[in-house]
Design a protein that fits this description.
By secondary structure, this protein is α/β, with parallel strands linked by helices. Helix content is 35%, strand content 20%. The chain is built from 15 helices and 24 strands.
Length: 522
């Protein structure tokens, strides 16, 4: 039985209590336990600020980037180990695990290259100056590292990528990290951090990990800390309203649940290439990681005249999916991560039931390949259809975090945009249309309600990364119920961990400051 440890103050420590179990979602059997009882989170944060912070602050951007490259190399050397853990603890197929594991490593490498390009400087300065008076008195804006710690509270669905994409940006910005992975899938995060520690590639205090409930972590926040959370809107509200967070006023970034949307353009027909591209992405939504992606398609808006054809085409593709043990190469859909998530999915389906009809799935599969359906957390890929969207509420509000999509017809472009907006803010939307002008208009109208909008026209074809895939070059986050946060986006991600200050003075003084900074538009 595995017993996960926390890594704080540069040593691994066990919790004092028995802790909670984490399981193999294929069999439901416990793999190990996780607990942080007795771990001094306040001391961990103080160590990060007082030891890790100064070590990073003394480094140039390029030197920090070299740290990321070394982390990536240490992780890449044991890729097969991480894929095996993702299969055992998250129920991932090889494809699913690659998105998490390879995605995390690739993001580290991407930010390593960005940091190298920033050179030997330790601060950034924005281009241009602003004249403030008739005489030689001007202003420029400089970005410097905040003297706190980056606190990461991560979701269960991406224990690798969710950790390393945040770590990458924070280290480039110069902030040490104290991360808390979700307990149900913390094994992968703990094993990866252990490998990085064993490789000896990071200065003391730069990276800490708390495995378990992390009691006292938020109680210990200070004004210059940054908290980045990924998870439910309810937990996000709890973090924002925590007394210590309200008192200290650290930066808080929330990425919460959202009812993401895909839109088939009004001119699309069943024969159109755009129609097929959306069918492909809808199939991915009910198969990749068993639908457990925060950016996954949840609502599919199609012209009323093609609804039946679209539903029939997608249903036929779903019939070809194989649900079962992800260790088997023929299996295309694994289980949900545990029984708790399965119960939550059933609760969501029950909320959607009065507004939809079930075309495929809707419950536990009749049988699964290579496993016992009664033991694992299996949910059949589910296709729901609504007769209208305008008068419904649950389909726009309830996110079933699993392999579930709902097709909703619309009568006009104005209605499609209005229905998309009923999600009240989402992480991602996608638009499928063979006419680039039409697709562009839809994307522009959806933009205020979404953090990212993917458009797929005939020029893009299949040459896109997918609705659900987050790329480090693009910002990730969303307005409204999606949390209002923003991360990644290349150098844009540094803004969360750095302080922008307006420096006022003589052109000579400002030039001296600029000489020791890298000029970049943030």
């Amino acid at each position: 039985m595995i017993r996960l440890q926390s890594y704080v103050e540069d040593r691994f420590v066990e919790g004092a209590a028995p802790g909670r179990s984490f399981v193999d979602p294929v069999t439901g059997k416990a793999l190990g336990t996780v607990d942080s009882t007795g771990v001094d989170c306040a001391a961990a944060l103080d160590h990060a600020r007082s030891v890790g912070g100064p070590a990073l602050a003394a480094m140039s951007f390029a030197e920090r980037g070299a740290l990321l490259g070394a982390i990536a190399d240490a992780l890449a050397a044991r890729r097969d180990d991480w894929l095996a853990i993702a299969r055992q603890n998250s129920g991932n197929t090889t494809r699913d695990a690659s998105i998490d594991v390879d995605g995390g490593i690739a993001t580290l490498k991407y930010y390593a290259r960005l940091a190298a390009g920033l050179g030997s400087a330790r601060r950034l300065i924005e281009p241009g100056s602003d004249r403030l008076a008739k005489g030689p008195f001007e202003a420029r804006h400089v970005w410097t590292t905040r003297p706190g710690a980056a606190i990461f509270i991560n979701a269960f669905n991406f224990p690798s990528w969710g950790l390393w994409e945040k770590v990458a940006v924070a280290i480039v910005a110069g902030m040490p990290v104290v991360a808390k992975p979700a307990s149900g899938t913390a094994w992968l995060a703990e094993a990866m951090v252990r490998a990085v520690v064993e490789a000896g590639v990071l200065p003391a205090g730069v990276l800490s990990l708390v495995c378990g409930a992390a009691e006292g972590l938020l109680d210990a926040v200070e004004p210059f800390d940054c908290i980045a959370f990924t998870g439910s809107a309810d937990t996000g509200r709890m973090i924002r309203s925590h007394p210590a967070v309200l008192a200290a006023n650290p930066r808080v970034g929330i990425e919460a649940d959202s009812v993401n949307v895909a839109v088939l353009a009004p001119s699309a027909t069943p024969e159109a290439a755009a129609f097929e591209r959306l069918v492909e992405q809808a199939l991915a939504a009910v198969s990749v990681k068993a639908g457990q992606l925060c950016t996954n398609i949840r609502r599919i808006l199609v012209p009323a005249g093609v609804k039946d054809a679209f539903v029939a085409a997608l249903a036929t593709r779903i019939d070809g999916l194989v649900v079962g043990d992800p260790a088997l190469p023929e299996v295309t859909v694994g289980p949900l991560v545990d029984e708790k998530q399965l119960r939550a999915a059933f609760a969501g389906l029950a909320a959607l039931a009065p507004e939809t009809r079930t075309v495929r799935g809707g419950g536990i599969p009749a049988a699964v390949h290579g496993a016992d359906v009664g033991e694992g957390a299996f949910l059949a890929p589910t296709l729901l259809v609504a007769d209208t969207g305008a008068t419904l509420s649950a389909v726009h509000d309830v996110e079933v975090f699993g392999p579930v999509v709902t097709v909703i017809p619309y009568a006009s472009l104005d209605e499609a945009v209005a229905l998309a907006a009923r999600g009240e803010g989402s992480l991602a939307a996608s638009v499928y249309g063979d006419d680039a002008n039409e697709a562009g208009e839809i994307a522009a109208r959806l933009a205020p309600f979404h953090g990212r909008v993917l458009t797929v026209d005939t020029e893009v074809g299949r040459g896109h990364t997918g609705h659900a895939i987050v790329m480090p070059q693009c910002v990730h986050g969303g307005p409204g119920r999606a949390g209002g946060g923003e991360e990644l986006g290349g150098l844009r991600g540094l803004r969360f961990f750095m302080q922008r200050t307006a420096l006022q003075g003589s052109p000579t003084m400002l030039a001296a400051i600029a000489a020791d900074a890298t000029e970049v538009a943030l």
